[in-house]
Structure formats: structure tokens, C-alpha cells
Specification:
Length: 173
């Protein structure tokens, strides 16, 4: 299903339009700046170039120590299978990397108690489950009254869960 079709279907399900096809085309499917998505094609000195090195420097995808705790709200429909099947572990990867290279940087894991080590392992293993929520739907699960309301509720839950996770990590260190 095309994304505009999905948005239209959400509007039909809720008996009121969410956004028209024209508004979708104008405000969502528009030309955005060349470096907006961190891709290798970019402008340097007013000239279009392909530079993986510049893209990596710009986006910092391996600078895990400076990443925040990441949470995911993912759809459930096969129409957005990539996000349905990968968001939980993809975003958890960034979080465990941020913890390892940031929050636990400088911590001698060999010096922590066996109980603290066991707690840390359990905590790290729990991250994908703790920091993921699902909302029924496809790529645009978060629009319309129902999807937006459920998404907002999950955002609140995940902010609290991320704070609890940070607190638990501080106690282990």
C-alpha cells in the first residue's frame, strides 16, 4: 500500500480525513535539502559530491558514547515490515552501545561484584523489551486520533522507562 493510501485508510477508519493527498504531496513528499538524511550525496563548496567520509563525519553514526538512550515505537502491519521486524533490535543496539561506550566507559567490569555484574547483564538483556512499544498500523501508525493518542501514551511511558534505566545503571556503577 502506498503511504498516501495508508493515510487515506486511517482517515476512513476514523470517519474523518487526516490529511489530503494534496497536502501529503506538498508537505511530506517534497524536495528537502540534499544533506537532510545524512546520505553520501552532499554539497561541498556549492558543488555536488559523493563523500562517505563527509557523511560519516556529519552524522556521527559510530560516536556511540554521545548517543542518548533510544526507544522505539514501532508499527505492526506487514505494510511496513522493515520497521516492524527491525526497530526493536536496531534502536536497542544504539542504546546498549551508548551505555557501553558512554555510561560504562571507565568502569572496570572486573571490579564490580558478582551481584552487580549479574544485574548489569540482566539489565542490558532487557533493553529491547523495556524500550519498545507497538502501535497497530503501518508506517503512519502515529497519525489520526487513535494512533496519535496511543503514540503519545507510549512516549510518556518510554521517557519514564529510560529514566528508570539510567537510574538503575547509576546504582550498578
Amino acid at each position: 500500500m502506498a503511504w498516501a493510501d495508508e493515510i487515506e485508510a486511517i482517515g476512513h477508519a476514523e470517519d474523518e480525513p487526516v490529511i489530503s493527498r494534496e497536502e501529503y504531496a506538498r508537505f511530506y513528499r517534497c524536495n528537502h535539502s540534499i544533506q537532510f538524511r545524512g546520505e553520501v550525496e552532499r554539497l561541498q563548496g556549492g558543488v555536488r559530491v559523493n563523500s562517505l567520509e563527509s557523511a560519516v563525519d556529519d552524522v556521527g553514526p559510530f560516536d556511540y558514547a554521545h548517543f542518548p538512550i533510544c526507544a522505539a515505537i514501532a508499527p505492526t502491519s506487514p505494510s511496513d515490515a522493515r520497521h516492524v521486524l527491525t526497530d526493536r533490535v536496531s534502536w536497542a543496539f544504539y542504546t546498549v552501545s551508548a551505555i557501553w561506550f558512554g555510561m560504562l566507559s571507565g568502569v572496570d567490569v572486573h571490579a564490580v561484584s558478582q551481584a552487580a555484574w549479574s544485574e548489569l547483564r540482566t539489565l542490558m538483556d532487557s533493553i529491547p523489551q523495556r524500550l519498545t512499544r507497538h502501535v497497530p498500523g503501518g508506517h503512519f501508525f502515529f497519525i489520526g486520533k487513535t494512533g496519535a493518542s496511543e503514540t503519545a501514551r507510549h512516549v510518556d511511558e518510554l521517557i519514564r522507562e529510560a529514566a528508570r534505566l539510567e537510574e538503575a545503571l547509576q546504582l550498578i556503577k
